[in-house]
Amino acid sequence: MMEINSVIKVENIWKEYRLGVDSIGSFGNLVRSLFSSSVNSENRAQENDRTLKGTSNYIWALQDVCFEVKRGEVLSILGKNGAGKSTILKIISRVVSPTRGQIKIKGSIASLLEVGTGFHPDLTGRENIFLNGSILGMSKHEIKNRFDEIVAFSGVERYIDTPVKKYSSGMYVRLAFAIAAHLEPEILIVDEVLAVGDVEFQKQCLGKMKAVSGEGRTVIFVSHNIAAVRSFCTRAVLLEKGRVAFTGSVDQAINHYISVGVDTSHNIGSQIWKAEDAPGFDEVRFREIALLSESSDEVCTTVFTSSSFRIQLIYEVLNKIQGGRLILSLRDRNGVVIFNSTNHSEDSGLKNPGVYKVECLIPGNLLNRGSYVVYLHMGIPGVKVLVQGQPFLRFDVISDGSHGSLYPENWGGIIAPKLNWVTKV
Amino acid sequence: MSVDSEKSEQYWDLIIRSRVSWWDIDLKGLTKFKELIFLFVRRDFVAIYKQTILGPLWMFLQPMLTVMLFALVFGRIANIPTGGLPPLLFYLPAYVLWAYFSECINRISLTFVSNRGMFGKVYFPRLVIPISVFFSNLFKFFIQLILFLLVYVYYLFNGVKLNSGVELFFTPLLILCIGVLGFSGGLMVTSLTVRFRDINLLLSFIIQLLMYGSSIIFSYNSMGPSIQAILKWNPFVWLIEGFRFAFLGVGVWSWSGILYAWMVAIFLLFFSILLFSRVEKKFIDTI
Q1: Which helix or strand (DSSP H or E) is residue A327 part of?
Q2: Which residues pair with A313 in a beta bridge?
């Protein structure tokens, strides 16, 4: 069997950026900066962490980044904002040059960091197709051949000889994307262009991306849209503070990304109390509350829409109780109750002093994306409150495209259950 | 193809690295973008006169109005001699040639500033932009030359004696030279403005100064020897005097002066391309 060749090799890429106000300094400095062949920056740049106040004016946006892309691969670059995704993309697209290291590329390459680059408002749609196509690297011949397709795809036939400044913003973007969509390079680089535009447009973009990846072309794709990444990327590189944190399968990279990439600082995955300050009164005290994944006892603060998870409570009964019930109230960040659930019918008998563990399984494919708060309350109905309900846990649900739609649209509704659909002829 | 061949540099179509050599200009890439240069030239023409009532007629009107103003201020009021020629005829060829230079340097000097958005999003050889400006202004120059020829023919039929010589055949040398000067000047200014915005503000003043020192509103011969001794170092003097001489028979045609102007132009061309190619890779980070 023939080995599949690499088409892109990113080798030890470093990129330094300067922060703050550019001062020119002396004339000598300027001349030096114009004529020095490499910036001597061994020690002056610092790690890129926006939350820390650095002492240096220089930061490393990328540090020793290496990865390879094989022919036909659809590679996703993941990472939170500021991790260096766009920078590496810009370097591969030759828009900025690396401070150190090199990138080797085999085959024709086109990058879409933006759609409609170079559109001139006074030119007609037709003229802009030729201009923009040419800027993106298409030959006149190619554009002519695909002209009708581009126009049909954009759906602006009627206005093709009208200056684009008279287009609605939707039409403008559609035309711009239509041109980009008809690029046929061997390697395609796509930034989060997909994040702009209306839902219809995003669908069109993702549809096209899927088609392109299906044709066996090599694609590098940067997006925050995990559903899209999961649905057509074959491999992923995870960047963290300018370094490669993980390279490998999409699923693993996404899991890694979730654990490090999403801002979870406001979330609470578990709480443990000492006996003396545990919530509750003389009869019952809560000792531990945790949000656990379905199968392991791992505490999480972020779950996928498709995954089930458990809410576990360990409580101590100090004096025996009869007829108590536990209520779990799930609310969104605005306090709107998503649902209340209780174990009253199953578990209301006599409880002797001791430590009890209770779990509630919340199924996957039920909650919509968003942030949630878990309240737990214990009491004997009509008699007394045992533990006052409080927001004990906070967590996020993020989409992995499981509620039937592949697109990153805002799926309306308080919940987003997966239901059975049957189609009959 | 075996995987081993990936190790050789020839296997790859493109290697991106931090600048290595001082002469790192993507000439091969530039030829691939011929069509883009043409499209930018076209865009200039289509876009510039949109939403003007007179449209491309401005290409005629602009030099005519300027030259008439010259005739009034420098001819009538200041009484600067025009070599026995009607002032319009005297100023027009010089001004049209000068306008080619000043438009080139002005527009090219804005290359980085006004294309920042595009340069930040897509790669094509950055020289495409200045080259297209060079050609679109050359085209504009030829159109304005037609205007001059109309005026020329008008005076010819009205009995003004004009001595056009064989030097006419060499005028392309002058036109190209002044274009190259404008091109390299623009490249230098745009490269430096990435760091010093001041230069752009200074530019219009420098161009004006150069214009007054370039025998557009006077003739070289009418100046005293002490002024001529300074003027002869200005390459524009030889180009403009030569151009005027070729058409009108008034002025100086100096082969050594033209050679000198070309030497300056070629030196500046190399220097400016070097400077430009240094800056083009870094400017997105700086500007």
Answers
A1: strand A325-332
A2: A289, A358
Q: Hey, what are A77's tokens? A: 């670059």
The tokens describing A98, both together, are: 């690396």
Per-residue model confidence (pLDDT) at position B188:
94
DSSP state for residue B169 in the 8-state scheme: G
Q: A63 to each of A159, A239, A344, A404, how far by Cα in Å? A: 48, 10, 56, 39
pLDDT at A42: 42
Q: How many CB atoms lie within 10 A of CB A217?
A: 19
Residue B278 is nearest to which of A34, A94, A140, comparing CB atoms? Answer: A34
Q: What is the maximum alpha-carbon separation in chain B?
A: 81
pLDDT reported for residue A411:
72
ipTM (interface predicted TM): 0.84
- Locate A243 and state its tokens: 């370094």
pLDDT digits (tens, 9 = 90+) for A248-262: 888 888 877 776 545
Residue A131 has pLDDT above 50, yes or no: yes
| Beta strands, E only, A241-283 | 243-248, 270-272
| Cα dihedral A173→A175→A180→A184 (10° resolution) | 160
User: A165 touching B, CB under 8 A?
Assistant: no
Rounded Cα–Cα distance for residues B195 and B167 (Å): 43
Q: Which of A328, A285, A335 is nearest to A309 (CA)?
A: A328
| Inter-chain residue contact A130 with B284, CB threshold 8 Å | no
Q: Does B7 touch chain A (CB under 8 A)?
A: no
pLDDT given for residue A78 in this prediction:
86
Other Cβ atoms closer than 10 A to B259: 12
What pLDDT does B220 receive?
Answer: 86
How does residue A145 score in pLDDT terms, banded at 50, 70 and 90?
very high
Interatomic CA distance for residues B283 and B129, integer angstroms: 15
Say if the Cβ atoms of B35 and A140 lie within 8 Å.
yes
